[in-house]
Amino acid sequence: MEPLVQVATQPGAPFRLPPQFEGLRRLAYNVWWMWHPRAALLFQRIDANTWTRYRNPIAVLESAISWDPLLEDPGFIAEYEDVVADLDHYLANGADHWFHRAHARQLGGPIAYFCAEFAFHESVGIYSGGLGVLAGDHMKSASDMALPVVGVGLLYRKGYFRQSIDADGHQEHAYPDFDLARLPVLRVLDRLGDPLFVPVELPDRVITAAVWRLQVGRVPVLLLDTDHPGNDESDRPITHILYVRGREMRLHQELVLGAGGTRALRALGIAPAVWHLNEGHSAFLLVERVREHVAARMPLEEAWATVRRSSVFTIHTPVSAGNERFDADLVRRVAGPLCAGGAAPGSASVPMEEILVRGRGADDDPAQFDMTAFSLRLANGTNGVSRLHAQTANDTWERLLGGRTIKPITNGVHTPTWVGRAMRELFERLLDADLDDLDGQSDAERFWDRVGRLPDAELWEAHLHQKRELSVFARQRLTAQLARHGEAPAALTEIGQWLDPATLTIGFARRFATYKRAALLFSDVDRLARLVHDANRPVQFIFAGKAHPADRPGQQVIQSIFARSRSPELRGRIFVLEDYDMRVAKLMVRGVDVWLNNPRRPLEASGTSGMKASVNGVLNLSVLDGWWDEGWTGDNGWAIGGRVTTPDEGAQDWADALDLYRILEEEVVPRYYDRGADGLPRAWLELMRRAMTTTIWRFSTTRMLHEYAEQLYLPAAGIAPAATAKRRVVTEAG
Q1: Same domain, 284 and 426
Q2: Residue 344: is its pLDDT beyond 70?
Q3: Is 32 a residue whose pLDDT tops 90?
Q4: Could you tell me if 399 and 434 lie in one domain?
Q5: CA-to-CA dists, residue 329 to 251, 365, 368, 369, angstroms
């Protein structure tokens, strides 16, 4: 099968490989390996030390490898040939999937998916958190389903900050400087075979963005980069830092993403049938597309309507700080030259004042340009990321919607990325699961409906194995942290006694925004201390997460929890892991027993960490907000509080804290430590099975993409939803 979207690129890093192993180059430059454990293990087998340090195939292949032993190792050669054959089979069989069979011939072009960040793996640090992880999972599932998608983003050479926590609990920020030769990205070529650059007009100058490709299975993701010698030194850092603090620099980034990304697609001859804006950061793609139509002599009003017909928009947060706004005067000055289109093909302008009027927010403030409002007005269809979020968003934006509604399409997770190896092997061995093809499971093949067949002992051992992996990692991370703080050797030795896998372990990991209430657990420290230090039924908590460098209140929350973790009352039972990233996230969602989430309802639009935990049999203990408001069935975890809240935040916090303590003391702890003669917690295992059954399909990105295709993509492409293939009925059980 031909690639769904073809993009010519330059060859990768010039490391030398034996001809017999040349397929390793293709493996290294297709991040398919990131969700196929056999491929990752193959690179680990080549050079375990380099793999452990970098977790990056390109770094492994660049190391000083002695190939002779591997060339004489029949086991390695057989494994290499099997893995390369698996990749080739995967890439060649896209036509077997639902969307390709039913709609690929109807769709006039691919779906262009624009997002400010993409998270694929910890070794590609161009992401911050939930938005990027969702975008990465979206691309991976689109690949698995052979959905014709091309992603568009920015290549941040310094990424997002690496977090360290000093001895006083202060968050410190350091920005890496990525060596692009060690990232799985290749320079995109134009139609003449030369490296592609696209122009973007800025005040008094035109900059250019280089275009790179990161291949995600069948899906190419184009990443724009302004750091090259053709730009002035002051413009090269535009794409350096994700979520840069300076507002003017942020606006420059979003012009490059939206307009530059559109021009990159045009330069490559890619004509999307649908344009998907994942959050409002890329809203200037709408301006650029209107400008194109005006340049082709289309009347302006018709151009706005034409762009709107093929655009879809996903809104992600009801929190005002998450909706991008800029001073209107700043937009006039910085975006004015681009909107005039001076360097673009077929020069034509879009009136700036009309753009600003369409970008007025819900408060109708003429001094502000709201990227979310602008995108809402120009979208054929818009979705929120859970049922509750869609309700909240419709209330917030009702005045702008003109009778339209924001649809609920609840987020999901890419199961093969997030399920642990021990649990995956159990699914494959005992349930004949095919995690690459959730989309193709018949009713009889739905392995998530058969997890009740998993033997108690094997299910528990798989969970304990993942829990031991987390314990080993967390001890290593804590030892490094506290050694840097100058702790004495005796204190470092003590860490070896912490994080016993036999102890009930509860995880809390996410961005440390204040509305997420990370410190709620500490509302009554005496009560908490009695709970965690119970001699017969101890409990331990692991916290991880970052606060944005500009979020001082969020950083103060981290500091307060760190101080609690070092206090005599809670020492050895509360742990704070620094530098939260995808690796830490994977270990935690796989290895804790309970996933804690307690935001202020209804400010958590969706959340996906709890879904990742649940597919591993980890039980959610959460406020009924975001996805858990519809995911909780009463027998697959616990709900904190209820669906009725009070506007008095202090009173609500105290009520939720009391309910959290009650659930822990009366339900969670007793059930976890209720063991049979064989030491197995059978009632707990039943909850684990229900968690997996109710989550694996219902909160997968595969199910999510079915809904995107039928509710947003096909209508925006002018294809009637009635023409879709047989729909999967989603029941409460999955």
Answers
A1: no
A2: no
A3: yes
A4: no
A5: 12, 13, 8, 9
What is the phi/psi pair of residue 579, to 5°?
60, 55
Give the burial string for 512-527 (b: 16+ CB within 10 Å, else e): bbbebbbbbbbbeeee
Q: Which tokens sit at 178?
A: 């990525």
What does the DSSP assignment read for 89-112?
Answer: HHHH-GGGSHHHHHHTTT-SS-EE
Ordered DSSP codes for 171-239: EEEE-----GGGSS-EEBB-TTSSBPEEEEEETTEEEEEEEEEEEETTEEEEEEE--STTS-TTTGGGG
How many CB atoms are located within 10 Å of the residue 635 CB? Answer: 11
pLDDT at residue 1, as a whole number: 43
The backbone torsions φ and ψ at residue 591, rounded to the nearest 5 degrees and listed phi first, read: -110, -10
Element (H, E) at 650: helix 649-663
Burial class (CB in 10 A: 0-12, 13-18, 19+), 66: exposed
Residues 38 and 169 both lie in one domain:
no
How far apart CA 59 and CA 198 sit, in angstroms, is: 30
What length does the chain have?
Answer: 734
Residue 707's nearest CA partner among 372, 434, 404, 390 is 390
* pLDDT tens for each residue of 67-103: 999 999 999 999 999 999 999 999 998 777 878 877 7
pLDDT given at position 730: 40
**435: buried, middle or exposed (CB in 10 Å: 19+, 13-18, 0-12)?**
buried
Residue 187 forms beta bridges with which residues?
A: 212
On whether both 472 and 395 belong to a single domain, the answer is no
Considering the domain architecture, whether residues 253 and 151 belong to the same structural domain is answered as yes
Contact assessment for residue 37 and residue 123, using Cβ atoms and an 8 Å cutoff: no
pTM of the model: 0.95
Same domain assignment for residues 34 and 144 = no
What is the rounded distance in angstroms from the CA atom of residue 453 to the CA atom of residue 458? 11
Phi, psi values for residue 132, rounded to 5°? -65, -40
Are residues 33 and 140 in contact, defined by beta-carbon separation less than 8 angstroms?
A: no
Q: Report the pLDDT value the prediction gives residue 445, as an integer from 0 to 100.
A: 77
Domain hosting residue 352, numbered range: 95-408
CA distance 333 to 674: 66
d(CA 95, CA 90) in angstroms, rounded, equals 11
For residue 689, is it within any domain? yes
The dihedral built from the CA positions of residue 510, 515, 517 and 519, taken in this order, carries a sign that is: positive
Domain end marker among 408, 425, 443:
408
Query: For the domain that residue 149 is a member of, what is the CATH number?
Result: 3.40.50.2000
Please indicate, yes or no, whether residues 152 and 248 belong to a single structural domain of this protein.
yes
Indicate if 338 and 476 belong to the same structural domain: no
Q: Which residues pair with 219 in a beta bridge?
A: 216
Is residue 475 included in any domain, yes or no? yes
Q: Which of 76, 92, 108 is the last residue of a domain?
A: 92
Q: Taking the CA of residue 6 as centre, how many other CA atoms within 13 Å lie in the half-sphere pointing to its CB?
A: 6
In a domain, 472, yes or no: yes
pLDDT of res. 346: 61
The answer to whether position 51 is within a domain reads yes
Asked whether the beta carbons of 218 and 143 are under 8 A apart, the reply is yes
Number of domains composing the chain:
3
Compute the Cα dihedral for 436, 438, 443, 445 and give only its sign. positive
